[in-house]
Amino acid sequence: MNDITSREYWNNKYAATDELIYTDVVNRFVKEYCEGLKPGKMIDLAGGEGRNSVFFAELGWQVENIDISNVALTKFLKLAAERGVEGKVFANCADATGFESVLTPVDLGVVGYLQIPMPDLADALYCLIDNIKKGGVLFGVWHSLDNLSEGFGGPQDQEVLPSVERIREMLAEEPLEIEVLEVRDGQVQTKDGLKPSKTLVLKAKKTAN
Fold it and tell me: How far apart are CA 113 and CA 34, in angstroms?
């Protein structure tokens, strides 16, 4: 089965090795834009093995990692225990496009590299925004559509690669004040060393409940 929105696909991917597929290092854009925020409650949507979730927990946040893969979440809880933050985290096995949060309303919603078809991504973002309190922050990072022609790695399907225009249109009716929506230069690690990539970054503040 190769449906990137299915639990079976992700469970098989994460179960292929006992090691962390996506490392235990926080995404550099998540760190850059969110490290200075006052700790509160947050949702890490499609947080997988929890590299970003554990980063926030270590900063004092209450963290809910929502992911479709129970295998990934098992790895996440193990990582949280190894880092001594198991008391700060919750694992919620649910589909990103329609979930019920245990921490809602939250101060921060993060979605990192949720590369799914645009209608599904819209549903996921709308659900996440609904669970963020007024004045809270929405942060997103993706392989950008520009990466197909200007970068390296990531999905090679334009249907799962957002652009500035796609995200702006998607969020046009949402109660958000967009502070950052741009393509940044990133890097991906390959067997031949670091290669350039194009990363889409979103940071917005929720303006109404």
Answer: 16
Helix (H) or strand (E) holding 158: none
Asked if 141 and 202 count as a contact pair (C-beta separation under 8 A), the reply is: yes
DSSP 20-45: -TT-SSPPHHHHHHHTTSPP-EEEEE
Three-state DSSP at 167 gives: helix
- Domain range annotation of the chain: 32-206
Question: What type of residue sits at position 40?
Answer: G
Residue 161 is which amino acid? L
pLDDT at 36: 96
The fold for domain 32-206 equals Rossmann fold (3.40.50)
Give the whole-angstrom CA distance, residue 185 versus residue 93.
32
Taking 80 as the threshold, does the pLDDT of residue 7 lie above it? no
DSSP structure string for 68-114:
S-HHHHHHHHHHHHHTT-GGGEEEEE--TTS---SS-SEEEEEEE--
Query: What is the pLDDT confidence band of residue 1, given thresholds at 50, 70 and 90?
Result: very low
Strands 41-45 and 106-112: parallel
- CA dihedral sign, ordered 91, 201, 6, 22: negative
Quote the CA–CA distance of 19 and 191 in Å, as a whole number. Answer: 17
